[in-house]
Amino acid sequence: MRRNEAIAGYVFMLPLILGIILLTYGQFIYSLILSFTDKTVFEAGNFVGFENYRKLLLDDFFFWKAIKATVLYAFGSVIVTQLAALAVALLLNNRSVHGKAFFRTIFYIPSIVPAVASCLRWMWMFNPDFGLFNALLKALGLPTSKWIYAESSAVPSLILMSAWACGGPNNATLFVNYLIYRNAFQYNEFGYASALAWIVFAVLAICTLVIFRFFGKKVYYGDAV
User: Fold this and answer.
1) Are the beta carbons of 211 and 220 closer than 8 angstroms?
2) What pTM value is reported for the model?
3) Buried b (16+ CB within 10 A) or exposed e, 82-114
4) What is d(CA 67, CA 200) in angstroms, rounded to the nearest whole number?
5) Of all residues in the chain, what percent carry a pLDDT higher than 70?
6) In angstroms, rounded to a whole number, what is the distance separating the alpha carbons of residues 204 and 196?
7) Per-residue pLDDT reduced to its tens digit, 101-143
8) For residue 36, is pLDDT > 80?
9) How many other C-beta atoms are found inside a 10 Å radius of the C-beta of residue 168?
10) With contact defined as beta carbons under 8 Å apart, do 73 and 175 qualify?
11) 3-state SS track over the chain
């Protein structure tokens, strides 16, 4: 009876196991193989050894620019968000503050609706009546615009918005994740993008091991012994 139950259990688990193997670990290994080829969307590609890695580390100016932007953003955002989160946590745990539940809900909402929040933010900045962009133009004594609400300025407005996510001026905000996307889906260089992804994976793995090795025991986990 127990053997039959065990077999039935494995049968029910089989779709999940196959999905993990084929769609997660399988793609993981496939990307590693691609990183040693010059595969594109239209060509099967040839084995090129470590050429993609050599090109990334020695010849690709945008790679190091993206690394710099990503590191600066990571350190800056972590420091600012952690300090802000600590200040808010201390404030909301103060007994003299009233309406703690309300403020805790307000602070938590952006973490569960990031896409909606981002959309509303851009709608507010592009608003022709009280938006940020028109307020700046008024402050500079320049004519205002209807932005996305007018036919003549809709496309330029979208171009302006895309510049924030697509590298910014002179690729100043070109982050590694977007560099991977750009090489894979704009330049169609799947092998090169895979090599870039694996370099990022290696850096993150090393950083994770260092953090756990030197700081893991210094983290307080509540009642954990």
Assistant:
1) no
2) 0.69
3) eeeeeeeeeeeeeeeeeeeeeeeeeeeeeeeee
4) 9
5) 88
6) 12
7) 887 787 777 667 666 677 788 888 888 888 889 999 999 899 9
8) yes
9) 13
10) yes
11) CHHHHHHHHHHHHHHHHHHHHHHHHHHHHHHHHHCCECCECCCCCCECCCHHHHHHHHHCHHHHHHHHHHHHHHHHHHHHHHHHHHHHHHHHCCCCCCCHHHHHHHHHHHHHCHHHHHHHHHHHHHCCCCCHHHHHHHHCCCCCCCHHHCHHHHHHHHHHHHHHHCCCHHHCCCCHHHHHHHHHHHCCEHHHHHHHHHHHHHHHHHHHHHHHHHHHHHCCCCCCC
Token output for 35: 């990183």
CA distance 145 to 34: 47
Q: How far apart are CA 183 and CA 60, in angstroms?
A: 12
Please count the CA atoms within 13 angstroms of the CA of 118 that sit on its side-chain side.
9
Q: What tokens were used for 130?
A: 């009280």
Residue 84: what residue type? A
Locate 21 and state its tokens. 């193997």
In single-letter form, the type of residue at position 65 comes to K
